[in-house]
Structure prediction request, 382 residues.
Amino acid sequence: MSESRERREFCPECGETVPPRSEPLPGEPRDRDRLLCDDCYFETFDLVDAPERVAVRVCSQCGAVHRGNQWVDVGARDYTDVAVEAVTQALGVHLDAREVSWGVEPEQVDETTIRMHCRFDGIVRETAVVEETTVPVKIARETCKRCGRIAGGSYAATVQVRAAGRTPTTEERASAVEIAREVVREREDAGDREAFLTEVDRTDDGPNVKLSTTKLGGRVADRIVQQLGGSVSDSATLVTEDGDGNEVYRVTYSVRLPRFREGDVIDPEPADLDAVEGSGPVLVRSVGDAVSGVRLDSGEAFSTDADLSEARQLTHVDDADTVTVVTVEDDHAVQVLDPETFAARTVPNPSFLTAEELTEGAELPAVKVDGEVLLLPERETE
Prediction:
């Protein structure tokens, strides 16, 4: 004889009959709560597991937030969003809940405390469940490792900016420091918290820029040479050993700006320039691997990578005067008024000047070198 009988189950807490539960899949744990009736189940059920409080570590100097084992720049003006994220990570929602949604209403108690009023909605055993909880968030103000290093004057590299045979100009000094700050900003924007400028020591010979890492120092030195010309060399000095016994070095990057700069008027002929044709003063237009410019007496192009250590600087376009054209004598000579004596004198007519620029009464920039007046391209003094 066979008789089908409905399988009956009982709540292990109250003994009430409960509907049959589906058997767990192979490998799933046999949860005692599955056998409880709804009344007993919800009597001890918590939709949300919330901590009594959450602490958020914030750098009082730069505003970075400590997450995991590192400091992270968040760029927040206040820490409400940071508090919401910290609470979100700290809360746990019951595994039996589905279709869970939640909202939060922050309450600023004081400068270092935010109460997070949270409301959760979900479905458990086909029953709508609502739970509210309040989690206080404490803002702990500290000093991050980066700001501590900055405050302590820590640095690993020094970029020394000098110039060959002269001292850097005010503009070159300012440009070098700004280039260093620009490189640091780029690294910061890329998320490199190890990148910072510690100090700028402005000496009579040129600035010494102290930077946080040797790699950053190399980037800055290369960028200065790229934009201002010159060359760079480096040397390392052992300063200490770290906790693991590794040697720690500081690197000095020596940037040597070119002897000449754009706008200089030079006499290159004392140098060995056998490969360069022509003679006469040269207006320097670019420096770098080679010095290039234009001959002021003829307008011919000039370029050389030869040693200019014996060349002579004559003046700079910043010291230019204005002369008045009297008449054009021919393709090679023009008559102007001397900027000092105002007497008419004949000077070279370089090819870079146009007929429109050489009209009678026109005013042109010029420099006076060793008693000679040399006309300049107008755009060089704009």
